[in-house]
Structures are given as structure tokens and as C-alpha cells.
Amino acid sequence: MTERNYLSNQALTDNVEVIGCIPRDNGCYSTWLKSTIFHPQGGGQPSDIGWLNEVEVVHVNVEDGDIVHLTTKPVALGNAFARVDIERRQLYSRLHSAGHLIGHVVELMMWHPIKAHHWPGEGRIVFKPGVNAQSVSEKHIQTICENYIRQDLPCKVVQRNDGFREVSFGHFTPYLCGGTHVTSLGQLGNIKVQEVKIKKGNLIVHYDVA
């Protein structure tokens, strides 16, 4: 089972050990590492991409409980140098953290997040109403989010003894999360709350980052 080093540190490069590599029907190769800094697709977040030595990693996913790196060419077994695409990781981290921030802000209005999608151009959070759910508008969410971004609340990550990980910003209640995040909200830059709508009783907030 691959050690998930991306959960405990933000490293974008690492010396890793390749323990398996076999061809796939689509022309790529399934490559396994003893430990990885690549975040696989999941939890509403796209996978990291990057390189193992000079071989491109085009996708990372979880198959049969283990992490598989899809590479464009075979990678020799043994030691390799892993590099995560920095720009892609930063974008995904900003999108995921922006989704958490919106989740926290709308929870203050008595809506409870139940589902999230943190993909570029597709960001959205789905909420179910609480007992005293308030009226919500794009402008209201945007204003409150911008205030917390100016405060630059720090990200707090806690790895629990049961294997789950909690992520929070400042004083907000932690969410269970295995994704990547900015170290503080000031790194989000500009976020845009694009649309707020009600569908089948649930509130859907669409958003993006500049």
C-alpha cells in the first residue's frame, strides 16, 4: 500500500521508490510508488500531474485501494525523482480552500454542506437547509469571504489517530478532508461567487478563483 505523503506535507519534489510499472491498454503505464507526493483524483479534487524523472505523470487515481500513477512511458524500478506540477497544484489547492471557505461562510447562514466539486471552471458546493436557514445571495457570500481572505486566516491540518484528517481555517470548525490546501486564506487571491440557486430544496453555490 502506497504511503500517502501528500497528506502530511506540502512537498512538491521528493526522492521516491518505484515498485511496479506495467503497460495499460490505452498506451499509458500503471506505475506504483512506495510513497507518493502526488494527490490522486478524489474528494472533489482533480489529481496532481507532474514527472517521475523525465517521464510525464498524466493522471493519478485510486484503484483497488492503492494509488496508481499513469505515466506516458515506462519508469524503471528503483529510485526516482518525483516532481509535482507546481502551477496545477497551486490552482487545485486554491480551489479546494475556496470551497472550504464558502462552506464555512454559508454554514453561518444555517445551511449545511453535503457535497462539493473543486474543479477548474466547475467549482460548486451543495448545501441542505438547516432549521433556520437564511436567505443567501452571491454578493453577501462574496463580501464575507473577502473579509476572511483579508484576515489571512491560517490553515490548520490535524491527522487523527483513526486515520482521518481534519482541515480548518482560523476559528472555523474543521472539515474531514484529504485534499490539498493553501497555508493561509491570503493565498486565495481573488475568488468569485458566480451563482447561487435553489434546486430540489438544496442550495448550490457556484464559484471560481481568478
List keywords for this structure.
210 residues; Elongation Factor Tu (Ef-tu), domain 3; Threonyl-tRNA Synthetase, Chain A, domain 2; 2 helices; 15 strands; elongated; aminoacyl-tRNA ligase activity; Transl_B-barrel_sf
What does the radius of gyration come to?
19 Å
Q: Helix proportion of residues, in percent?
A: 10-25%
Listing every helix as H and every strand as E from the N terminus to the C terminus, the arrangement reads: EEEEEEEEHEEHEEEEE
| Global outline | elongated
CATH topology of the largest domain: Threonyl-tRNA Synthetase, Chain A, domain 2
Please list the strands of the largest sheet in the order they lie side by side: 2-3-7-6-5-8
Poorly predicted tracts of residues: none
Domain Threonyl/alanyl tRNA synthetase SAD: 167-200
InterPro entries: Alanyl-tRNA_Editing_Enzymes, Thr/Ala-tRNA-synth_IIc_edit, Transl_B-barrel_sf, tRNA_SAD
Cofactor: Zn(2+)
Pfam families: tRNA_SAD
Q: What do these coordinates show?
A:
The protein is elongated. Helix content is 17%, strand content 41%. With 210 residues, it is an alpha+beta fold. The chain folds into two domains: 3-84, Beta Barrel (Elongation Factor Tu (Ef-tu), domain 3); 89-209, Threonyl-trna Synthetase, Chain A, domain 2 (Threonyl-tRNA Synthetase, Chain A, domain 2, 2-Layer Sandwich). The longest helix is centred in the middle third of the chain and has 22 residues, at 86-107. The two termini are 37 Å apart. The model has no long low-confidence stretch (mean pLDDT 96). β5 (50-52) and β6 (55-63) form a beta hairpin. It has a six-stranded antiparallel beta barrel with strand order 2-3-7-6-5-8. A four-stranded antiparallel β-sheet has the order 9-10-15-14, with helices on one face. α1 (86-107) crosses α2.
